[in-house]
Amino acid sequence: MITIDGYSKDPNIVPEGIAVTFGKDMIAEKGSLKSFLRWFNSCVETEDDHWLHKCKNAPQADIIYVYVIISNRLYGRCYFGGYSKGPVPAYTIKPDGTYEQFMAEWPHITLAGPMIRAPFKRKLSGFQGFRYTTKLF
User: Fold this and answer.
1) What is the pLDDT along the chain (137 residues), one digit of tens a residue?
2) Which CATH number fits domain 15-133: 3.30.200, 2.30.130, 1.10.150, 2.170.140?
3) Beta partners for 67?
4) pTM over 0.85
5) How distant is the alpha carbon of residue 108 from its chain centre?
6) Residue 43 CA to its chain's centroid (Å)
7) What are 6's strand-pairing partners?
């Protein structure tokens, strides 16, 4: 489990969130890190916005937060909006600002806005999927 002070294997610590990593391929799809961050931030800007993130397994603990790791750094925090395996209608924002609707037929977690940027820089790397966390900020 990731804690504010580092990593811990203490079974008495109750997780409050999970940390997910956004891969290099996802970032490269949008051209550059800067354009990806601009696009991602526009997707989780307000409390009415959400992001569907591929995730094979559902969190077993009752969590509140989803911490986002981009380029091996803690980038920010969203709210956990649930887990789904079934197909759901979704949309993506194209670079020209138009929307394209599609069916998300993969298991996913929902990250609900607004995105809160991390108030400090912290390196986090070395895992795929998700890790449980305490409240990091």
Assistant:
1) 999 999 999 999 999 999 999 988 888 888 889 989 988 998 899 999 999 999 999 999 999 999 999 999 999 999 999 999 989 998 877 767 788 899 999 999 999 999 999 999 999 987 888 999 999 99
2) 2.30.130
3) 19, 77
4) yes
5) 10
6) 12
7) 3
User: Residue 115, exposed/middle/buried by CB under 10 A (0-12, 13-18, 19+)?
Assistant: buried
Q: What number of other Cβ atoms are within 10 A of residue 37's Cβ?
A: 17
Return phi, psi of residue 38, to 5°. Answer: -60, -45
Query: What are the DSSP calls for 10-47, one per residue?
Result: -TTPPP-EEEEEE-HHHHHHTSSHHHHHHHHHHHTSST
Q: What angle do CA 29, 23, 74 make, to 5 degrees?
A: 120
Do the beta carbons of residue 36 and residue 105 sit within 8 Å? no
